[in-house]
C-alpha cells in the first residue's frame, strides 16, 4: 500500500510540477533539463530569446561557426567577452574544441539567433576551474549571437530569383560579363556593392579574375537573370579574409544581376579572326601602298574588319587601346610603322603557337 498523504499535498505538488515544466520549456525549449531536486543542472539550459524568421540552416556537429558572446557568472559579473577583445570566435563546433556546454549549446542555432546558455560546472570548467578566471564549480552564463556557419563539405549554392523567359546563350567559362552585385556576410552585414560605384562590374568568367565561388556561381546565367550565390570561405577569401569588410573564414552571400555577356577571347588574345585572315594581309592594311603601315592605317583596317564582322576585338576594353596594343605588338622595332617583314615575323611566330591573333 502507498502511504496516503494529506489531500493538500497532492494539490500543492501538481502546480509546482507544472511550473517547473513551464520554466524548463521556456528556458530550454526542451533542450535543457534542470535536475528534479533543484540542484546543479544536468545539462545546458538553452534559452532561444531571438530566433530569426528565416533559418535556412542550423548548426550541426562539425560545422565551422563564428559568433560573439558575453560570459557571466550567476551574479552577473562578467568573466569573458569576445566583444571586449573585438574578435569573433571562429571555430569548429561539436568536436571538443570548446567546453562541452558550449559545444552542446550552439547545436541547432541559426545565423543571427541569440541564445542564453546556462552551463553547469561539469560541462564547463569543472571542479578545478580556470586559473585566475573561473573559480571551481562555477555555473557559467553565456549570451551568444551566431554570425556565420559553414562546413568543409559545402559547395556554392545558387538560387535563381528571376529568370528571363528568353535566354539564347548562357554564361560559359571565358565569357566577358557585366553584372551588378550586392555582397553581404551571412548575418546581413554589407561588405561591397557595385550599385554605389556608378557602373557594372566587368570581368571574364573562369579566368582567375574572380574568387572561385563566383566563377562557379555565374555559370549558366542569362542576361537579365538575378541570382543569389552563397560561397563558402574556401571558395572565397579563405582564412585571411579580404581588406575591409570580409573577416577571415567568412561565408559570402551575393545577389547578382547579370546585365550582359559576350564571348570572350582566349587568354592573351586581343583580336581574333572569325575565319581565315585575308591572304594578302599586309597589302590590305597598307591603304596608300607606300610599303609601311602607320597607326592610322592599322586602326582603320582593324575597325573595318570588326564592322564587317570578319574579326572581333577583346571585349571589356576601349577598342582604341586594344588596337594601340596590337600595333605595339606588331611594330617590332618600335619605329611607329609596321613593315611587311615585321608582320610576317609575327605571323610566323603566331603560327608556331597556333595563334589566331594578328
Ligand atoms: Ca601605308
Ligand atoms: Ca616598325
3D architecture notes:
The chain is of the alpha+beta class. Helix content is 23%, strand content 24%. The chain folds into 3 domains: 23-150, Chitinase A, domain 3; 157-262, Chitinase A, domain 3, CATH 3.10.50; 271-352, Recoverin, domain 1, CATH 1.10.238.10. The protein contains 8 helices and 14 strands. The chain is elongated, with a radius of gyration of 33 Å. The N and C termini lie far apart (105 Å). Strands 1, 2, 3, 4, 5 and 6 form a 6-stranded antiparallel beta sheet that branches. Strands 7, 8, 9, 10, 11 and 12 form a 6-stranded antiparallel beta sheet that branches. Strands 13-14 form a two-stranded antiparallel ribbon. It binds calcium ion (2 copies). One calcium ion is lined by residues 331-333, 335, 337-339, 342.
CATH class of the largest domain: Alpha Beta
The CATH topology of the largest domain is Chitinase A, domain 3
CATH architecture verdict of the largest domain: Roll
Strand content: 15-25%
Number of separate domains: 3
- Integer average pLDDT: 87
The radius of gyration computed from the alpha-carbon positions, rounded to a whole number of angstroms, is 33 Å
Taken in chain order, the helices and strands follow as HEEEHEHEEEEEEHEEEHHEHH
Q: Biggest β-sheet, characterized? A: 6 strands, antiparallel
Low-confidence spans: pLDDT under 50, at least 5 residues?
A: 1-36
Per DSSP, the total helix count is 8
Terminal CA distance: 105 Å
Number of strands: 14
> Oligomeric form of this entry?
single chain
Shape: elongated
Which small-molecule ligands are present, each listed once?
Answer: calcium ion
Coarse structural class: alpha+beta
The percent range for helix content is 10-25%
